[in-house]
Amino acid sequence: MPSPPSTPRQTVQETLSSQYLRNRRLAPDFLEKYALGQELGSGGFGFVLSAYERYTGIERAVKFIFRDKVPASAWIRDRQMGPIPMEIYVLKHVRHPNMIQYIDSYQDDSFFYLPDAIFGRRSSCDLFECIEQHQNFDEPLAKNIFRQIASCVAQLDKLGICHRDIKDENIVIDRNYQVKLIDFGSAVILPRHYGDNRPCLFTKFYGTVSFASPEILQCQPYLAEPAEVWSLGVLLYTILFGEVPFHGPHMTLTGRFAQPKINVSEKCMHLVKSMLEISPAKRPSIHQILTHPWLADF
User: Fold this and answer.
1) Is 68 a residue of the active site?
2) Is the per-residue pLDDT at 121 higher than 70?
């Protein structure tokens, strides 16, 4: 009697973190404090693992950054730690209630590892997921969310720092609609941070195409600050209307965004249009945005 056909074995794809951490001894002081869990995500920079503090049980997510993937321009010297990635330096030296909080960091010959201090993972999600769940936010709630983000970006700007990858996926939101800006892997410290107020032009693109300004898409030398304002304009439009304003680079280059299907106030639409000006020189600064009549109205 022939035997039944065998059931094909399913192969479980190995995660990036398991490939790199297998048989690797991490920093002893890190292992003493944290227990690692499953992989939450991965990318070109490295990967993120869930974790908890052994003595408190507090949930964390730990970002592992490949040392050899950090660009030469993204290193900076810290007085205590020596050369470290810009992301760690910014988080270590900047505090704002709407920004991911620095707890500590560790390193070995292959990685930097950065535990986060954002909301509990079970009670929060990124803003992209939240928009998908709600489709869009009503105007007062959108204003509350956007004001928090703009306040954080303004604090960074005062210190001469640009995030350079403002988008809904880099913002975490909790059930009370409190938000935090995360992922400073593309951040830059401008010369004015050190007292040099001369304009600083960039030529390389950092960030996400759907949030990129026209001057960046045209490969022109650009100022980081007005490019950041453009990304905030795309973000505000997305929060209000549940979709990005430009359905491709060709639309971005014309500056003609999709006609909103939802009505908002004139003040609100004026702010959106001002941030999505084709000319960088015509866009408001982040501090002008915070004093705009729409945001000034509580």
Assistant:
1) no
2) no
